[in-house]
Amino acid sequence: MKEMWKGNHAIAEGALRGGLQFYSGYPITPQTEVMEFLSFRMPELGRHFVQAENEIAAINMVFGASATGLRSMTGSSGPGISLKQEGISYLSYNDLPAVIVNVQRWGAALGTLDSSQTDYLRDTRGGGHGDYRIIVWAPNSIQETVDLLYEAFEKAEEYRNPVEIYSEAALGQMMEPCEMPEFKERGYDLEWSWDGTDRDHERVDMDQKPIHHTAKFKKIIENEQRWESINTEDAEYVFVALGLPSRVARDAVKRLRSDGEKVGLIRPIAIWPYPKKAFEELPEGIRGFLSIETTDMGQHVEDVALAVKKGFKTNIPVYVHATNQKMPKVKEVIEVYRQLKAGNLKEAF
Amino acid sequence: MAVARKIPKIMEEPTAFCAGCGHGILNRLIAEVLEEKGQEKNHILILGVGCNCNMNFTWGGDKLQCAHGRATSVARGAKTGRPDTLIISYQGDGDAYVIGLSDTINTAYVNTNVTTFAVNNTNYAMTGGQMSWTTIPGQHTTTSASGRDCESTGNPIKVPEIIAQNFDVAYVARGSLHSAKEINKTKKYVRNAIEAQLNGEGFSLVEVLAQCPTNWKVSTVDANEWLKDKVVPIYPLGEFKKREGRDDK
Questions:
Q1: Does A61 contact B at CB distance below 8 Å?
Q2: Chain B closest CA to A53's CA: distance in Å?
Q3: What is the DSSP letter of B94?
Q4: Which end of chain B has fewer CB atoms surrounding its CB within 10 Å, N or C?
Q5: Considering the domain A227-341 in this protein, what is its CATH number?
Q6: Given the DSSP bridges, would you call strands A263-268 and A227-230 parallel, antiparallel or unpaired?
Q7: CATH (domain of B113)
Q8: Distance from CA of B70 to the nearest CA of A (A)
Q9: Chain B residues within 8 A of A65 when measuring between CB atoms
Q10: What is the pLDDT of residues B126-147, one digit of tens each?
C-alpha cells in the first residue's frame, strides 16, 4: 500500500528495509531528517545508531563497522561529504561495502540550502584521493530513492565498493506516495570480514592492487550502466537530465512531442558508471544534445559530451542549460529548445 | 634451571622497526598479554598511520589499517560489529594526540569499550622526525631545528591526564620502556587495559614512552638514558585512572 513519505524519512526507512545495521552521521541541512528518523527507529529495531562528533569520525566508524560485517551507511550534504572523502577513498581501496547518501545543497563552501546538483563531478569521479570510483545512483522520485536504497547494500557487497545515493534538497524535503518494500537482511556472514581470528580477508598484495581495482571498476562499468530512455527511437534532439530536473525535461519532451517536435530524453539513473550504452543505441541523424542540470557552469554536460564522442563518429553539438540553484521550468526548457533549434545557442562541446 | 625462551606466536615474524626502537618491545608486551588471556585469535588491531604501519607485515594477528588519526573512530565501528572481540587501536603520538586528538578524546568521552595504546616517542618518526605536540621543550626536530619553542608551539600535551581528569573511563596509565623494571610495569598496564575491555568496563588508554634513537640522533644504548633523563621527567609514569574496585600496588 502506498503512503505519503517525506523524502529524507523514506531514505532512512528504505535503508532499514534493505538491511541497514549501522548508521553514523552528523547533522546538516537538508539531510538531518535522515539521522533524526534513524535515531529512534534503529534502537526500535535493535540496530545501531551513532551521532558522531563530526563527519570524519562518522565515515571512519562506518569503515570499522563495515569491515566487521555490518551493513553500514552514513549521509550528509555537500560540505559534509567533502569531509568524508578520505574515508570513502579508504573504503574503496580496502574493498569495503558501504552506502553513502548525499542530499545535495547548492554551491561551494557553505553555499545555500537550495536544491542543486553541484556535487556531480566530485561524486562521479570518486571524490577523494587516488584513482577509484564509487557506484552513484541518482533517483528522480521518492519511490525510486527507496527502491535503489533497497538494492544498494547488496550491490555494495557484490563489488565490495561503496554505493552513493545522489539525492537533492528538494527530493529530500518533498513528500510523495511511496510503497515500502518488506524488511530483508543478508542472513549470512561475509566470510572476508574481520572477526578477530585473522582469517583470509581476500585482499590482494600491494603490487597487485592496480590490476585488481582496474578489473573491479571495469566489471562495474560493463554491468552497472542504468538509464531510462523516452521517445529516443526517432529523435532529432535528445535532452539528457537526471534527478529532479529530469522530471521537468520529461514534461517538456511530452509537450514538444504533442507539437510534433522530434525530441527525446535520456535519464541516467547510474551516473557512475555513466550509461554510455544509452547513447550507443540511439538512431542516426541526431542533430543535438541538451543537458538540463541545476549546476552553475555545467558539470553533467561533460559526461554527455564524452558519451556522444564515444557513440557517434560525427561531431554532434552538445548544449547545456544550467540553472544554478533554481529548478528549471517546463516553459523555460521549451524556449531553450526553440533557441537551440534556431541556432541561437552556443554549444558547450 | 634452563628456561625455554618462548616467543608469542603473534610475534613469529621479526618486526620491521629500527634498531633500538620501543615499538618492538610494546608489540611483544601486547602479544604476551593476548596469549596469556587466550585472545590471540580474538582481537583486531586497528593500526594508525606512522611507524606502526610496519605491523601490517609482521603482526601475526588480525589487523586493520585505517586513516591517519582515525583509529579510535574505526575501533568504535568495529566494536559495534564484533562486541565479543578485543578491539585495540595501536597508534603513535602524532596519530592519537595531534591529527586524531578529536577522535581519541571523543572515544574517551563516550567511554566506548575499546583499548588504545599510544606510543609516545616525542616526534613524527615515520616521516623522518618532525615536531609533535609531545616533543619536549628545546628538542631538536626537522621542524623545530633550533629546538622546540613552547612559547609559540605549545607545551608537551598530556592526553592521559586530560582523559583521566575529565571523563568517566575505565583505565588510564602511562608506562615507559627505558628499563626492565619499567617494561614490567608497562606490561601490567597493558594487562589491565585489556582486562578492562574483556570485562566490559569501558575505554582504556595506555600511553607508552618509547625510544626513537633514529630520530633523536643518539645510539640505541644512549636512547634509554635519553628517555629516562629527558622524557620521563616531563611525562609522569603510573596509573591515572585505576579500574574500579582494584588496587594493584
A1: yes
A2: 7
A3: I
A4: N
A5: 3.40.50.920
A6: antiparallel
A7: 3.40.50.970
A8: 7
A9: 77-78, 80-81
A10: 999 999 999 999 999 999 999 9
